[in-house]
Amino acid sequence: MPTEPGGGTDIYARFLGPLLSEKLPGKPTIIINNVPGAGSIAGGNQFQKRARPDGLSLIAIGTSITTNYVFRDKRVQFKLEDWIPIISSPQGTVVYSSKSLSAKKPDDIAKLRGEKLVMGANNATGGDMRVLLSLDSLGMTVNPVFGLNRGEVRPGFERGEFNINWETTAGYQVQVLPMVESGEAVPLFTFGVADDSGKILRDPVVPTLPTYIEVYHSLYGKDPEGPPFKAWLAMFDLNVMAAKALALPAGTPKEIVDTYNEAIKAVVAEFNNPQYKKQADDIVGPYPQALGTAAGRALKGAVTLDDETFSWLKGWLASKYQVKL
Predict the structure, then answer these.
(1) Second label for 295, Cα 20 to 30 Å away, from 190, 244, 246, 267?
(2) Domain that holds residue 49
(3) What is the pTM of this model?
(4) Are 53 and 59 in contact (CB under 8 A)?
């Protein structure tokens, strides 16, 4: 687990782990070992070096590890495209702000323009990038405090150190919704989810919230377009439609992979079991799950950017955050 306890990826893995254990031959105990650091790079590097292709190791993949991989962080020593996903799960993204700001409901988002927004983040090329890019394109000035892991940011938000934040829908349902209900946090928008035709619709987990595209249209009177929107869509595919995954190390024999693929199919079938349905709805959501070879296609497709999009994002990172790729 390349993240700290308590984040969306950690919650995802801790839900799937016991179910997967029940479906594997012999019902082995699955132990989750958190190895946080460097935007999930530390855990990814450790998995690359130590995990053997014997079926005894899996890695939970989240948006920080994939985004840092795509943007070629110099600390990355793993080869994500060689790992073997058994499941790839879409996860919505919810952006929310503090009650201390002038926005008291989603329709007030224009009021955040001109306010000093402070957001805890790991780095400019990790999972936080999609939110920084979105807020920038909406005309908002964000002052990120880099160097923090996701597990550190939400407590900082609760203490008032940050006034804008984001969470996956899994983390939102479990960790953020109580703050919304108490009035401490104000949900602003989601990234939405894509249907089979690629159209971005409202997130079924939080259907009352507008999507990023709806917010953009409300502020500018038109839909987003051009290279900046292509870049946003690339981040959407990477961080929403292929947001979470579980993968075996490269070189795992086919018979072991097949065993895991059968087990994860049985796990997903349990999502409608009354015993697990509420947890499944809160953590995995109503999104379609990609399994086996489909999981591999979803993840590997998401981590491949065309040259034009990569070049635009490279320029944006350099101009906004002095990050050179």
Answers:
(1) 190
(2) 8-90+240-302
(3) 0.78
(4) no
